[in-house]
Structure formats: C-alpha cells, structure tokens
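[Discussion] Sanity-checking designs against the backbone

I'm trying to build intuition for which residues belong where. Below is a structure token string of 372 positions. I'd appreciate it if someone posts a full sequence so I can compare it with mine line by line.
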C-alpha cells in the first residue's frame, strides 16, 4: 500500500483587513439608523437594537481583526454585506481564483505545477455555485488532469479533505492530490447581528497530499486520521437553491449564518477532546509527544479548553498557536492557516495534530510527524 504524506501548504490572504474598532463603528451606525427608522415601534414597547463593542467581541471570541474580500460593502451602514460583483462565465470565479492563488504557492514550494496534479478536492463551507464544481474550475485553471470534485463538511472540510486525498493515494487512484479551502465567509455572515457580526473572515488555503515515493525529502508523515459527525441544529445556514425564489430570502436571518454559541461551546469541547484522546490511544501517541496542536480557529476559549484537556495543562502559544486574532474564523481554512504559519520550526521526528470542528457537528483529526 502506498503511503500518503503532506508535502506543502499554501495561503492566500486578502489585502483588506477590518479591525474590531472599524467593525463596531459601522455596526453602531447601523443600530442608530435602524432604531431611528423603527422609533414608533420602539416607543410602543418593541426592543431597540443595542450597540456592540470592541471589549465584547474580544471577550466573546478572542478576535481582533479579520481579512475580507470587500471591506467597503461590509462597513457601509446602509449595506452591511460585501459587494462582490458577479463575473461572466468566461472569467474565473472569485472562489476558484483565491483557491488557485493558494495552490500555486503550495506547488511552488515543491517545484511542481498543475500538470503534476492527479486530483483536486475543493473542501469548503460555502461553495459559490452548485455546478460546475469549483474543484473542476481550479483543475482547469492550473492545467491539471485526472479528476476533481467539491465537498462540504463545514468547518471540518479540510481535515475531511486530507483524509479523502490520503485514501486516494493509498488506493492508487492518485499520486498527487491538491486539496484547497477557499472561504469567503463574509458572504454568509449577518453583519447586523450583534452576537455574530464579528465572527468570520475570508481566506484560501491549499494542502498537497502525495505518495511518499514522489514526495520531496522534507515532508510530513500522516500518522493517522479520524473523522466524526453528529447531527446538531446549533450551527445552521438555510440558504440554498430551494429557497432562491423567495425575494427576501438572502436577507432573512436563517438564510445566513446562525448559531447558539453557548450550546456549541458546551457540546463541542468535550466531543472534540474525547475524540482526540481516543485517536491518540489508538495510535499509541502520548500527550508529551505532541509538540503542537493546530486547532480550528473559531473561538479562543474553546481552543484553550480543548488543548488543556488533551495536554493535561494550559497550553502555551507555542503549543497551541492562534491565528484567530488576526484572521477571525475562516471556517475550514483555520487549522490549515495555523499549520502553515507555525510549523517551520519542526525537526525530524516532531509530532503534531491538525484538528477541525464545526457545524454538523463535524470534527476531524490529522496526526502528523515531520520527516527530514
């Protein structure tokens, strides 16, 4: 059986960043506007909208800023959503474009090009369209052959994509698999909801999974992967083609991202920590052998608790690095950003864990060991 390994990662970061202060100023201006327009209802007893604050956002999430494809539309109190114009069908779509940017960076690291790719997996939370698959468009833009397809497991899409790519390599269906995570999360975020208007950012990541016999000397052995899903309504987005005929559908709250954050926190932390522990037992890995945890970047408090349960002590920034503060929640890409930015110091034999968790519920673990 051919052994799959991770050989490279890539990262595309948009130019525009929005600070919490900028986001709060925009949101509070929208609150003033909304309350003025509904003054009569408020006077009659209806609840008024309340301000957000920098302190509230940082305490609730640990987020300090986020990168976005379009800053102007998000910060416009009369719009409160990104302005990303449709492109004609003969131009590359925006989601494919950012995926290609991340992919090219990964390919350049190992001296390969699109013609070396046998399969493309586009694993993300929100696809730009139903079909043609975004992965097939990425495949075409890179000049790759073989096959390509999209998959959506919400925030766990990257770890599910890594296991899927590794399985293709093991089975002999591909030598080199490109797995990309283009996430324009600002497009599904309700920027008028005080409890969640700060959560998401935009980004794209890429991971190359290859057969060991075609991999460069420096790579990452995949020690083991494990996937888990458990149905929950606590994180949901109801927008889809079946409700497109509703002229107000996109603007309705349940057609955008919604969650019951406290329930998610309470239920996901023990689920993920227990899953990691079980997989460590199966693989015979002790917590003292893990140099670093590259966890999903959704909430600083969740990561702190999960890392503490896994390691047996409060994790340092070295042991469980954070990119959430500057990138916000980037859904499937979060753990890959952390891995991409905080893995260069690993030496041969060092072990770590890429772990994601999110809507579904879904969770995935990828234990890796540095080679050379």
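Best answer:
Here's mine. Compare freely.
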């Amino acid at each position: 059986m051919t052994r799959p390994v991770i050989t490279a990662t890539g990262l595309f970061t948009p130019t525009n960043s929005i600070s919490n202060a900028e986001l709060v100023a925009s949101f509070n201006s929208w609150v003033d506007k909304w309350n003025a327009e509904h003054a009569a209802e408020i006077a009659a007893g209806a609840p008024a909208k309340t301000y957000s604050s920098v302190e509230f956002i940082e305490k609730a999430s640990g987020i300090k800023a986020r990168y976005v494809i379009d800053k102007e539309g998000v910060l416009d109190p009369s719009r409160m959503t990104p302005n990303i114009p449709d492109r004609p069908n003969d131009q590359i779509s925006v989601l494919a474009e950012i995926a290609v940017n991340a992919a090219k960076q990964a390919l350049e690291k190992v001296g390969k090009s699109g013609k070396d790719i046998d399969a493309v997996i586009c694993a993300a939370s929100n696809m730009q369209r139903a079909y043609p698959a975004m992965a097939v468009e990425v495949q075409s833009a890179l000049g790759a052959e073989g096959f390509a397809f999209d998959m959506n497991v919400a925030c766990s899409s990257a770890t599910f994509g890594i296991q899927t790519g590794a399985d293709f390599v093991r089975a002999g269906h591909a030598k080199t698999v490109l797995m990309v995570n283009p996430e324009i999360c600002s497009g599904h975020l309700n920027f008028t909801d005080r409890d969640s208007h700060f959560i998401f950012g935009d980004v794209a990541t890429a991971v190359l999974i290859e057969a060991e016999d075609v991999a460069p000397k420096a790579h990452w052995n995949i020690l083991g992967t494990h996937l888990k899903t458990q149905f929950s309504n606590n994180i949901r987005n109801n927008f889809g083609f079946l409700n497109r005929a509703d002229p107000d559908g996109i603007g309705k709250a349940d057609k955008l991202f919604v969650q019951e954050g406290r329930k998610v926190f309470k239920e996901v932390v023990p689920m993920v920590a227990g899953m990691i522990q079980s997989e460590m037992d199966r693989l015979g890995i002790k917590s003292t052998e893990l140099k670093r945890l590259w966890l999903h970047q959704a909430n600083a408090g969740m990561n702190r608790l999960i890392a503490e349960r896994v390691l047996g002590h409060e994790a340092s920034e070295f042991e469980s690095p954070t990119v959430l503060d500057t990138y916000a929640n980037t859904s499937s890409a979060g753990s890959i950003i952390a891995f991409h930015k905080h893995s260069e110091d690993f030496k041969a034999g060092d072990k770590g864990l890429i772990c994601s968790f999110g809507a579904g519920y879904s969770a995935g673990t990828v234990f890796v060991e540095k080679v050379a």
